[in-house]
Amino acid sequence: MASKPKITLTKDVYERLWKLLELVPEDTITNQLEEELERAKIVTPAKLPDDVVTMHSQVTFTVQSTGKTFTYTLVYPTELDNTENKLSILSPIGSAIIGLKQGQEIDWPISKTQRTTVKVDAVSRAD
C-alpha cells in the first residue's frame, strides 16, 4: 500500500472532530478518521489553502474503481438532512477526503473487503 498523502486541518476542525469521535461508537471508519487526525498538519484558518478539503467544503471527487465523479458538501453527521448533496465526515469517503488538496488521491477502504482510490478533483469553500 502506498503511503498516505499529507493532509492539513485547521485547529478548530481538528478539535471538533476529536470531540465527535469521543461521542460516537468506535468502528472501522472512526478508527480510520482517528489515524487521519493523528497525522494531520494543523494550521490557522488563515493559513489553510483554498484548495484543501475542510468541513463544509464542496468537493468534487472521483472514485477510481468505478470512474464515477461526485460532488458533495462535507458535513458533520448532525447536519445531514434530506438533501442529496451532503456527505458525512463519518462516511468512508468523507473520512478519506478530509484535509486533502485538490489533485491528491488516497487509497481507502470502503468496506471490510473493498478498497478504492479516491481523487479530489475540485474544492470550493463557503466563506
TrEMBL record:
Keywords: Elongation factor, Protein biosynthesis. Pfam families: GreA_GreB, Rnk_N. Residues 49-124 form the Transcription elongation factor GreA/GreB C-terminal domain. Residues 5-43 form the Regulator of nucleoside diphosphate kinase N-terminal domain. One of its GO terms (molecular function) is translation elongation factor activity. One of its GO terms (biological process) is DNA-templated transcription elongation. It comes from the Bacteria. NCBIfam families: PRK05753.1. This is GreA/GreB family elongation factor. It comes from Marinimicrobium koreense.
